[in-house]
């Protein structure tokens, strides 16, 4: 196991190099001048030039890339050219928001997706199966910005049940301990803040959950259908087990591996910050940070941000791969 | 002798449907079509026939692992088909099954000990430490060791896995075990071991077997009586010695003549059947076998023969044979 993990970590090196090159080139190839973005429309050519010189933007690309990588190897992820604070700090400040949203979305997606998938598989071709699978197809196809806006219109504007933006309402205070607001309000016993946090959390997490939920439901269904045909399911029934025991203990456990794979991939994607969802719901997370950085040509944040997000993604997948061997005893990691 | 299991007019028809929005039934596969027999306490009834003749479906219908279309199954005086799901689960303690494919019939996610222990706990036969001891005993009985309980099924060979399958079936102290081709997936050298084990266990635990197979020599070895099936029906049934020495039905004769004799000089008349088994989808009227029967007469094409008594304990379904 240790050997496997070390091997996988070594395998990360080419991935990081590849990602860093793409991140670096992307921000340098898109039109727009960082110096102009920082200094504004009326800056003089002289001021722009001296800022470019200061930021190293006049150097040839390979020199700039070398400098970028050199800093990263020293653990320096650079500073934002807009706020001048370290990129890593900017990320650390936004990360809990993204994590809280991702976990909430993932919980919804997993619970609803697996349940719908299992019922669909057990009652194949039933009304429930058809409705939920068409629903899943719609779920994958709906543009999230449209769905988010519709939800805001209905639940916040028309019904007033939920809040449409940010993590807390103005006027509600909460002592930050972990920066996960649900946890913080539970720890401090601040029920008003808890209620307010949930009112803010529900809509973006449902909007974010639609696609993973649909993918998990479809994957669960097909994987369960496969497993339910197996002989050992018949064996389990012959033992005299209850139907639910057969389905959840014998079948679902065996069907879980591909479900775990899509869960890992989906969670990794969510952790990188859901740019659209966070923007629509003004959620102060990584996705919004990246969006703002791109709009302001804050190239250190974009470059390093992409790198950090890729690292998170790759690590989550590594964890999923390690989990495989716990889920399926036939898999030995070598 | 007392019949432990009585099967009467058992039928399983699978509908064949077509159509996208409104499904229309376009045919009926009569996998099992009016099978009836008795199984006596302590005996082994062999059920033989070609692939697709309905042997396995019959076995599964008896245990209601698939729901029969029609017919009656009386087990130990209880009409199994009228039981609700709860009573059915309870009666599964007394009727178990050993499955064909030992590679597929054991849950790959469970340790062998848990596979065997699950029904013990479920039916309240033992619990806790006692249950674990019972698992060890069972493993010992089938020729494995107690420490094997901690392993997973994929760590065993085919023969060992089938032993696990047998231990699992034995765990609930059943009266009847339906063995669905329990050795056909195993090497020939291992087949004999497993069959001998099953014979020993039968004696030791006073078991009754229904032994489904397509290999006549295997069935010959273990059965007290043999029923031959063709396309969902029993065509001949007799004590094993009687059946092998004095087969009456042309299909049985053809099957028996196909058993290889381990003697290169042996002169043997081989009855070669023409063609394949006809499709069970909309079979022709009359005797199912008439399309391949070398002796078929016009009557065979019109009238399906009944299973007739040919002498003590020997019955056959053919117009051309008479007591």
- Can you summarize the main beta sheet of chain A? none
- Largest contact between chains: A-B, 19 and 30 residues
CA gyration radius of chain A, whole angstroms: 24 Å
Roughly how many Å apart are the termini of chain B?
24 Å
Individual helix count of chain B: 10
Q: Nearest-angstrom radius of gyration of chain B?
A: 21 Å
Structural class of chain B, by secondary structure, is alpha/beta
Can you lay out the helices and strands and say which pair or pack?
The complex is a heterodimer of chains A (334) and B (323).
Chain A: H1 2-29, H2 34-39, H3 45-55, H4 61-73, H5 87-122, H6 127-141, H7 144-158, H8 181-187, H9 191-228, H10 231-238, H11 243-271, H12 275-280, H13 286-295, H14 299-327
Helix pairs in contact in A: 1-14, 5-6, 5-9, 5-11, 6-9, 7-9, 8-9, 9-11, 10-11, 11-14
Chain B: E1 3-18, E2 24-40, E3 44-48, H1 55-62, E4 70-75, E5 78-79, H2 85-91, E6 95-98, H3 112-122, H4 128-141, H5 158-170, E7 176-180, H6 188-205, E8 208-213, H7 216-222, E9 225-230, E10 233-239, H8 240-245, H9 250-257, H10 298-302, E11 308-311, E12 314-316
Which features characterize this protein?
heterodimer; A: 334 residues; mainly alpha; 14 helices; B: 323 residues; alpha/beta; Rossmann fold; 2 domains; 8-stranded mixed β-sheet; 4-stranded antiparallel β-sheet; 10 helices; 25% strand; globular
How would you sum up this structure, described in words?
- The complex is a heterodimer of chains A (334) and B (323).
- Helices cover 75% and strands 0% of the residues of chain A.
- The mean pLDDT of chain A is 87.
- Chain A has 334 residues and is mainly α.
- Chain A starts with a helix and ends in a 7-residue tail after the last helix.
- Chain A is built from 14 helices and no strands.
- Chain A has helices spanning 2-29, 34-39, 45-55, 61-73, 87-122, 127-141, 144-158, 181-187, 191-228, 231-238, 243-271, 275-280, 286-295, 299-327.
- Chain B has two domains: 3-94 and 177-182 and 203-316, P-loop containing nucleotide triphosphate hydrolases (Rossmann fold, 3-Layer(aba) Sandwich); 101-173, no CATH class.
- Chain B has helices spanning 55-62, 85-91, 112-122, 128-141, 158-170, 188-205, 216-222, 240-245, 250-257, 298-302, and strands spanning 3-18, 24-40, 44-48, 70-75, 78-79, 95-98, 176-180, 208-213, 225-230, 233-239, 308-311, 314-316.
- In chain B, strands 6-7-8-3-9-10-12-11 form an eight-stranded mixed sheet, with helices on both faces.
- In chain B, strand 4 and strand 5 (78-79) form a beta hairpin.
- In chain B, helix 3 packs across helix 4, helix 3 packs parallel to helix 5 and helix 4 (128-141) crosses helix 5 (158-170).
- Chain A binds chain B through residues 230-232, 234-243, 250, 253-254, 328-330, and chain B through 60, 63, 65, 85, 88-93, 96-97, 99-101, 104-109, 118-119, 122-123, 152, 154, 165, 168, 172.
